[in-house]
Amino acid sequence: MSTTTTKAPAQKPAQKKSEGFKGIKNAFVVILICIVVAELIFHIFFGAGSHFQGGSSDNDPLDIFGTVYKGGFVVPIIWGLFFTVIAFVIERWMALKTAFGKESLEKFTEKIRKAMASDDIQAAYKACDQQKGSVANVVRAALDRYGAEAADETRTKAQKLEAIKGALDDATAIEMPTLQMNLPILGVLTSLGVLTGLFGTVLGMIKSFSSISGEGGGDSSALSTGISEALINTASGIGTSALALIFYNYYTNKIDQFTYTLDEVGFIIVQNYAKTH
Structural domain boundaries of the chain? Predict the structure, then answer.
């Protein structure tokens, strides 16, 4: 009489959590620091007496630095926003680099595809250990559920497939906030930069028109100061918003690539289970 033995699922290796930079949680502190730095640069360097006639910032500027200083109090505020954009661009780059892992997502996906095609779960685990990051964590969670469902004989195949899909979705929901952290700030700065620049522009134009309406047909010095304030604020605001918009869209596309990869890998894992069990 022959006996039928059930092949026990391979034991999964101990899970390795992703290591590295995951993002700055206290965004308010970063914004405050950026504004303080902008104020210091504006007043200490651009407001230095060497940039003005007679060594006083109350006089006409001698160079472009003094002209920028004449842009008014709105300029360092916009610069603070600009520095904030730079800070979170770097912060998001570091966080996404950690989340995506060591190799490109295309290479990682191909490794998982080959491992599952040969029904080698250990190779898939090894690929996750090498890749690290949020992508590997999500795929590992799906593989864990894969092994658990393979050992469970009390549920139907359809229930097991749904459980694997659910594990993938749950793990994605856990990792996604790390990827999207602080990204809304860049989205807000795409509009706030322009609006702040427009505010400074309006203030500069008010000064210009006030000079024109003054006695004697207007003070040329006051007129030029008002125009400088308007143009400097306009340029600063547009530059801030443009930089924020470019990188907001860039990182949004990177996150879309992340979710697409997880959908593809999840489909590979589910299809493999459906074929082999």
Answer: 27-276
